[in-house]
Predict the structure.
Amino acid sequence: MPARGVHRIMKSVISPRHRREPLFLRCGNVQVVFRWHGDRWKHEIMLMHSVDESLSSIFFRSVEGPHSMRGDAHWPCSPSLVELDTLRQPESNVILAVGMAGRSHFSLSISALPNDLSGSLLFEHACRWKGSLGWIGSTYESIVPGNGSFIGDCLRIIPHESIVSESCSLIADGLELLQIVPQMSSHHIDLLKRPERLIEKTSSGHECKDSGTIRWAYTVRCDKI
């Protein structure tokens, strides 16, 4: 489900989760778990053991709050999600979430990809922004020791391109952080440069727009069991 429809569905179909209980979605051996943290939902991505769930491992944990390069709460490390619920469908449930930071509105949908026998989850994000564009993307802490910045022992985060979503890149920040950054057509942020060196024009040389919607997506896949 494209993330652009999440705001509309949340208003018309889904009631907010007044009780801040954890919310799960699993496909094969891949599971995402949302837990309330302070003033927003954060999530963990787990590899579930096929026989003994007590042996399951957390591979990635979302990083919340202001981006470390800027310290501006209007542009958080990961989308700020404050409303969360499940849309029940015949084939598989879908997690829907919305939130905002500053003048930006975020939405997310997570769905299972059942054709992958070992399990895959598709994360589809959207941000509707106004004003000067800052950092936009998703940031994860890598939890399992020795799994590297991009590939875990058993789980991988893979950029996903579609008709409605931007292409995106994986960027390592040391050995513990992984960032998924949309290659925004109107404003590309180079994380390897200081904030004052942000590119603020399109490839054609025109100045950036003062509002718009950016979408990015990625899958989390289990490569081996």
In short: The first strand starts at residue 23 and ends at 27.
